[in-house]
Amino acid sequence: MSAADPHWSLAFEHSFAERLPGCYQPWQPAPVPAPRLVLFNRALAAQLGLGEMEESALAEFLSGRRLPPGARPIALAYAGHQFGHFNPQLGDGRALLLGEIRDPTGQRWDLHLKGSGATPYARGGDGKAALGPMLREYLMGEAMTALGIPSTRALAVVATGEAVQRERPLPGAVLSRVARSHIRVGTFQYLAIRDDLARLKDLADYTIDRHYPDLSEDPNPYLALLRRVLERQAELIAQWQAVGFIHGVMNTDNMSIAGETIDYGPCAFMDRYDPATVFSSIDHQGRYAYGEQPRIAQWNLVRLAECLVPLVNDADEEQAIALLTAELNRFPAVFSEQWQRRFAAKLGLASAAPTDDVVESLIRGFLELLQAEGEDFTLAFRRLAAHLRGTDERALGLAPLPASWDPWLQQWHRYIDGRNEDPQQLAARMDACNPIYIPRNHLVEEALAAAQFDQDLGPLRALLERLQDPFTARADSFRYSQPMPTEWGPYRTFCGT
């Protein structure tokens, strides 16, 4: 197919491949017998500037059966700590970067295929993907985006027309993923463990040029890079915590240098509030539990800092370590400020200081109350706003507050009453940052099962419709806000590989 093909309107660039040889291997997607477009993200396509195309052409381009004009697929190399254990050779075992595209604003995006067949990094896997996990990634990325949380997004899910063997044969699929980049902590580890200092510097320079160009003027841009990534990660994890999101596999190869949520494997949203909540079937020790996510983010950042030591000061290792350690030690304070700001807004509180002991006490007290009573995390904040309005919103699934909340409510009212705010306006502001609709685990599983086994996309589309406007309560959507029924527990998620 020629580069002048009128059906594909996005031009590819290949800056990663051109500037970072040795960090990938050129590869071709595996042929698929009968690609069929299952879901196509028209809003994202419009944002990218992708013109109208026939579904059959989209299915071929976004399954890898026929490469879009200008695509030069590569499998990315990276290392990583997986559940704390280091593997020096990971990489895209079932994914390919087709290249980079620019949207109409000039923003650069990676276009990546997932499930496109085994690569040299496949480590014995088949390189394929099942339809269910690819639909989960589509759904989760859209939900996170609607919640205002930086995330990779799916452009499409294409059924391949073949079965993939897991515990049983499952319909195969390829997901096309858009990201600001696929540079991970593990990408730096891949070069650092090989003592490839020249390429490590090239990677750091490329990362700065692509994501943080203002740092190029810093006296020590590599130290500044750690600082910026740390700040982005602290903010991202605070955003996760504020909506009860649990990633499930916070390995260093799943931490994006761009500060996006990436790789939606055994992820889920918490129902009842409990910091020890784990959904991943392989996280037996709770390493990546909800309450552990801030600590693990800092641990991952330490691994990044280890890679940057020779770049920060190649003549004095001790000084480099001291400078990087000083930055790493900022993480708890940076995260605490981000965390408190978000939870204060959720509770209608305000503070002039970066952190406020009274606000902190009210937040912690509320979370302790939720944990002690087994309350639903998401609905609790909406119920609080309904209480402030003085309205009965049981039709929306928001039960009145129990009497056991009264001691905490008295403290809360003293704080907010002292600000002389209109309760209706305050409740509206709380609702604007507290979703009523999240990807409830039972609804996600119902929708994926219907799509994967019954070829019925109705439940998935209905769920997506609510998740794309998560803060607006709808009278026809009672079941979409309700907690997981007890017969669904204990809930476990799987990586889908």
Concise summary:
This protein has 497 residues and is α+β, with helices and mostly antiparallel strands. 42% of the residues lie in helices and 12% in strands. The chain folds into three domains: 15-182, no CATH class; 186-337, no CATH class; 347-497, no CATH class.
SSE layout and pairing:
Elements: H1 15-19, E1 24-26, E2 36-40, H2 42-48, H3 55-61, E3 74-76, E4 80-82, E5 85-87, E6 95-102, E7 108-114, H4 131-146, E8 153-165, E9 169-179, H5 185-192, H6 197-211, H7 221-243, E10 245-246, E11 268-269, H8 293-312, H9 317-328, H10 331-346, H11 357-373, H12 377-389, H13 406-417, H14 423-433, H15 441-453, H16 458-467, H17 478-481
Antiparallel strand pairs: 1-3, 2-8, 4-5, 6-7, 7-9, 8-9, 10-11
Helix pairs in contact: 4-15, 5-6, 5-8, 7-8, 7-9, 7-10, 8-9, 12-14, 15-16
Describe the overall structure.
Helices cover 42% and strands 12% of the residues. It has helices at 15-19, 42-48, 55-61, 131-146, 185-192, 197-211, 221-243, 293-312, 317-328, 331-346, 357-373, 377-389, 406-417, 423-433, 441-453, 458-467, 478-481; strands spanning 24-26, 36-40, 74-76, 80-82, 85-87, 95-102, 108-114, 153-165, 169-179, 245-246, 268-269. Helix 8 (293-312) packs antiparallel against helix 9. The chain starts with 14 loop residues before the first helix and ends in a 16-residue tail after the last helix. It is of the alpha+beta class and 497 residues long. The protein has 3 domains: 15-182, no CATH class; 186-337, no CATH class; 347-497, no CATH class.
